[in-house]
Every structure is written in C-alpha cells, then in structure tokens.
Structure prediction request, 231 residues.
Amino acid sequence: EVQVLDSGGGLVQPGGSLRLSCAASGFNFNSYAMNWVRQAPGKGLEWVSLISGSGGSTYYADSVKGRFTISRDDSKNTVYLQMNSLRAEDTAVYYCAKGSYGSGKNGVLDYWGQGTLVTVSS
Amino acid sequence: QSVLTQPPSASGTPGQRVTISCSGSTSNIGSNIVNWYQQLPGTAPKLLIFSNNQRPSGVPDRFSGSKSGTSASLAISGLQSEDEADYYCAAWDDSLNVVFGGGTKLTVL
Prediction:
C-alpha cells in the first residue's frame, strides 16, 4: 500500500526558515518524481515544486524560486522542502504528492499526504 | 489568477449529468495531458482522472474526462450527494511547471 506522510509545518516569523519532510512507502521510491503543492486558507491548489525520480532535475513555481529548495534522500525514502525567506503569503497547507515514474513532467499526482500547515506570522 | 480557467461553481440534482470545463493554452493543455483532482471538504486532493480520460483504480465510471485542443472537460453522470466537492484540472506547462485551474465547487442540490 502506498503511503505518503508529510510533516514539519508550524508557526514561523516572516523572513524565517522551515523544512518540511515527506516520508513515502509502498513503491520503488527512487524511480518516482515527487511534488509539493500548497493551498492557502480558503483558496485553490498551487503547485510549488517537483523533483524527478533520479533527483537530477528540479522545478519550481515562480512564486518560490530562489527561496525554496526541494531535495530527496532515496536511502530514507524521504523528500524535503527547505523554505527560506518566508513571507505571509506562504501561509498554507503544504501537501506532498507522489508523481509519475521518471521525470514527473505531466501533472499526474497519484498519492497525496494529509498536509502540514505552515503559518508565517509575527 | 490561475493559468487554467475553470468556472468557480457548478450544481446539479441527484441523478443528473454535470460537466466542468477547463480552458488553457497551447503551452499546457494544447501540448500535454490533462488530469483532474477531487477534494472533498477537509481532506487532501485525490487523483480522479489522468491522461485526459483515464480513471485510476477505484474511481467509478460515472466520472469521465475529455480533451479537445486547448480545453478539457470533466463529466459526472448519475450525480450523487457524495460528489459534492471541489474539482481541479491540472497539466504540465512547457514553461517547466505544473499548472492548476482555480477549482470548481460542485453543489448537489
């Protein structure tokens, strides 16, 4: 059974940093792309970042480029999202989602975590 | 402002057929597959349709997807009360990112 468990959210001040983690199981983790998607309170879904199955390629939304970094540790079946220079507008529930085999460049997110809330406020 | 355009709301009565549209451009829907997600109240999104018209295992055949040019549609037949949810379309964009629609809130009257 595929499982995706995201964690690491919390309250952080503007300009601060936070690292989200996503532990996955039930599939050949190192072969699959992984994504982060966020949802601000009462708003729609916004894709944040993608890392390919090989880890060799990463992609970011313009809104987070230069501030967020996605990475993966295949030995731990875990993907991370390092978030720096946080702003109030980054406040959202962050979801980790399993992508497709390989590059993941198709918008297919077939398993999602339960989400972790990040609140940026002083 | 979302890259993919969806109507903010849709509604129908039990048993009816409803459709939700998703409009994009040549850099996303026009050249890549479309996927649909269902988000029930208070829960994480769930993949409903992938690759334009394919259903993951466990998704009822009441749900169907189609694509033509730079637009796509999700159809729900035999509408049920448990279908009340937010629906999102998504696609890869050739500018190297995933784009979502703004979401459509479906109400079952």
Notes: Residues 68 and 83 of chain A are 5 Å apart (CA to CA). DSSP finds no helices and eleven strands in chain A. Chain A touches chain B at residues 35, 37, 44-47, 50, 59-62, 95, 97, 105-115 (CB under 8 Å). The mean pLDDT of chain A is 97.
